[in-house]
Each structure stands twice: as structure tokens, then as C-alpha cells.
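#lab-general

N.A. 3:47 PM
ok so I finally got the sequence cleaned up, no stray characters, all 596 residues accounted for. can someone with queue access submit it? mine expired

B.Y. 3:52 PM
send it over

N.A. 3:53 PM
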Amino acid sequence: MTSRRWGSLFRGSSRAVALLAVGLLAGALLVAACGGGSTPSGNGPTAPSTSASLTAGSTTLTTTTATLTPNPPGVGIHKIRHVVVIMQENRSFDSYFGTYPGADGIPMRDGVPTVCVPDPASGTCVRPFHDRHDRNLGGPHSADNAQADIDDGRMDGFVREQESGMKGCEQTFNPACGEAGGTPDVMGYHTGADIPNYWAYANDFVLQDHMFESVASWSLPAHLYMVSEWSAYCSLQGDPESCRNAIESPQNPPDFERRLGNPIPTNPNYAWTDLTYLLHRDHVSWGYYVFKGSEPDCDNDAAMSCAPVGQSARTPGIWNPLPYFTDVQQDDQVGNIQSLTDFYKAAKAGDLPSVSWVTPNGTVSEHPPGLISAGETYVTSLINAIMRSPDWDSTAIFLAWDDWGGFYDHVAPPRVDENGYGLRVPALVISPYAKPGYIDHQTLSFDAYTKFIEDDFLGGQRLDPRNDGRPDPRPDVREDEPELGDLQKDFDFNQTPLPPVILPVRPQTDLIEPARVARGPGAAGQTLRLPGVKGLRPFELAAVAQYLGITTAELRRDLRAGETLRQIARAHGRTVAEVRRAELAAVRTGLPATLP
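B.Y. 4:20 PM
back already:
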């Protein structure tokens, strides 16, 4: 692999330029217009008239944070007035950047991997291989699977764990699910020809090759750590002192519980303190952006105010835990959790909050069986929108994948406490102040994102029970772990700001599209099939929709977006067997005469 300039293939023709004249009056106006450390009415992630507004209905300017000055461009880290964390799903570093020039990638000699992972099924071993498939399977990725994959630092359990995964597992986001009996694609890796935009960002900005998941577990604990530096189980409602360490089984959100067969789930009790408590206390605007129902399609590369791929699936609760945090509810901040469409609108208007987290739905998450290309399209659209925004000149984008998804990685994670770190994941820093073409070899975790936010907007205040004003019994202060590197080393705040790099949302790629025939009935791209029925006729779709309490249009939309019948049924508190019985009963009783 050569050190080809991937980014130069796709550069745009112009850079977003918006520098205002400096002066007392102009500075005051800019504070009123920017999301930085102060939140004027209408500038936060919620409308000022709602109870969840950061200004609680006020039409006056709130006070600025202690670490920001009102007059741009600021000094050092404070040139960054907008941090955007884009969190994708379930890829290891070696699976995406294992052959990137200069990175700590797959050990090779003369282009041939020197590592070989045991395959118990065949009695041989499997070397890492170039996998061009757009759809991968991955492997189980619970806390137990992490320990088995790591295998006391030997990093040789990946094939064994995939082969022992639950056969025919329908619960797509269940960390116990893997695909047994097939090719062990956990050993597959992708190159710059497969994921050209991701490699272009690495070439033009910063690639981090020692970013570890904060916790050696699956997606829900990873997202809890992303916003709170802990994963716990709390025995008393709303009481942070009742919380105890739980890296594998914190309480599940209700939609996930329904998928596991619980028809009447209760909301989880996340009573410990999360970062939004400190942000709200110091008047720092924030937004957590999720898929909320259907998002419009953007085939035009220049389009900004919509999502790149039309989807009807919602962001799963395991990727959106903030609504269940006690302090978010008590601070009336639930309204800061918004549709992804609002993020695009805020970017276009130059109205991004100081801190944004952006999470996907299943189809664009890159979580198997989601397509890599769909995720890259979605992420590129987000980054293009930020780069076209008036806020680009003061923004830092942190792009990462929440856990390793069972895929091979050769670097054993360091042990910092009883909870982690987890395995290595891909991570990039994209900013006009990012060091171009830089590979960061520091030991990092998602805790570094929180540390950067705290240093930029909160005067270095940590989520520390001793002094944050809301104590809980977390085992340590993760941001202050001595092994943790400093993201400020990825920036040169004295350099001429880098221009935007606008990439095509659907780049040419060597990825092989999946076959049209999916793995099972009701899978993406296939007509829903029920016993004795070749393909559902309109009245049968109407019968199923009526049974589930939704419209036929909503049912069609969910099926076209890749939802299986089992998933749709569980989302509405039903089983697929119950749906089938209702559909067959409708056929037998001549229901088509009664339905429009």
C-alpha cells in the first residue's frame, strides 16, 4: 500500500469563509450568534419557548462559561467552540485501518499477515484477509467475549467466539449474537479502496491508532461511558449513591427489552451523574441527535438540511441512553435530545451547540448486518454539512466506532481499572486546526472526548464525585487516568486553518454489494413472506398493520428500510407468531372486504 493522497481525489472547490470583524460590538454580536460557551435564546438545541430550552424560556443572553472569552478567535483549545462526537458501531481498528501506511496495523511481512488466529472448527488457523464485502457478520461482543478475544493478551479468540455465536440469532443488536457456521469474517479487513472517504479523512486530518473503547463490553455500556464515564446499575430510583458497577448488564432501555421478549418493560434508572449535568450547570449548550422516525433522502451531494439515506428505523435506546438519566430529567433537558434533521438545520444556520453527540439508526450504523457503504454515506453527509457550516472554522469533529463488534485486532488493550479499556476501534479527528496527515499513537479512549470538552468549556472540571456537586460511587475519575493521552496534541492552534474537504456521499468503492436475496424471510430487500403466501397482498399488509396498530404505509416503510417482521412485531409488543396468526385469521375470515 502506498501513501497515496486519498483526500485529493475528492476535494471540493471552495472553503466556508465567515470571519467577522473584531470589536466590542462585533464580538458581542458573535457571542449572540455562536453556540460556543454561551446560549442565547434560540441558539441552544431546543426552541426557547419549550421547558427543555437551555434558557428555560428566557430571551436574554446567559452567562458565558468560565473558560471561554466572548471575543473570537480565542486562544489555544478555546478556538474550538463546537465539539461534535459522531459515534458509529462495531468495527475494530485493524478491520478498517489495519493496512493504513504508518499506523500500528496488522503485522505483515512483504504484504502477508504474520499472525494466524486458531480456528477450532477446522483445527487450523485463519490469517487476516482482505474482505471486500459490503455486509459483514462480525462476532459476539459482550464483556465475556471481549475477555475471550483478548485471551490474556494473546488476541487469538476471535474466530472461536464467532463460531460459538448464537445460530440464527434474530436480535440484531444483542451482543451475544454472532453468525456461527459460516466463513469467519471477523478476520477480514478493508482497505482505502473499500472505504475511500474514511481513508481520505485520515490522510487530510488525524488518525488515532490507539483509541480503545472505554469499557470492555458492548454498545450500551459504551454509550453510557460516552456521556457519563461509567456504566452502573442503580437500585433506588433517582439516587446516585445506590448505583453500583455494571459493565455488562446495566438496565436496558424499553425498546431493547421488548426485543428480548419482555412485553411490558420499565424505563431504566440511570441515577449517576452524566456530563450534561456539568454542561447545563455552566450554561454550555448541548444536543444529542438521533433518528426519530423517517428522515428524508438526500441524493444531491450539495443538499444539507436532511439525512443522506432515507430511513424509518429509530435510533435504538441502547445508543440513546440520555433520556433515562435522572439529572437530564431533573434539569428539564430531555428536549435537547432531538431528530437528526435538527442537526443539519443547526449546521446550515451556523447554530450548532457547543457539544453535540450524533448517533445513527441500525441501517446506517455499520453495525452488522448494516452496510459499510450506507454508514460511510451517512457519516460523509454529516461531515460535509459541518464543513459547509459557518461554524466549521471553530469546530472539532471526533469520529469513532463504539466497540470492536467481534472483529480482529492485534493490540491488547491496557488495563486501567476493573472496567477496561476495551478493544481498539477506529477514530479520527477532523478540524481546521487538526494536524494534517498526523497519526496519533497516544493511548486514548472515549474518556479523552469528555476530558477535551471539560478542558474547553468547563475549566477542567471533571466528573469527580469529590467536587462536581452530585456525588456517586463510581470507581475512579476516568478523565484523570495517567494512561490517558491528551487530544490537544492532535491540534495545532497556530496553523492556518485547514479548508473543508467536501467528499461525495456515495464515492466509488471496491466493496461488493450483498446478494439481492437476503438471509431470511422479511430481511432487507425481500418481500415479506408468511406461511402459505408467496408475497403479501395489499389486504394482508393492511391486516398486519391493523393488528400492530400502525398504518399500512408505516408498515411498508419499515420493511423497505430493512426491518424484519420479527423486529417490527417486537417493537409493538407482539411476537412474529402472533402476527402470523392474525394475518392467517384475516385471510380465513375474508377481512379484505372490510379493509380499504
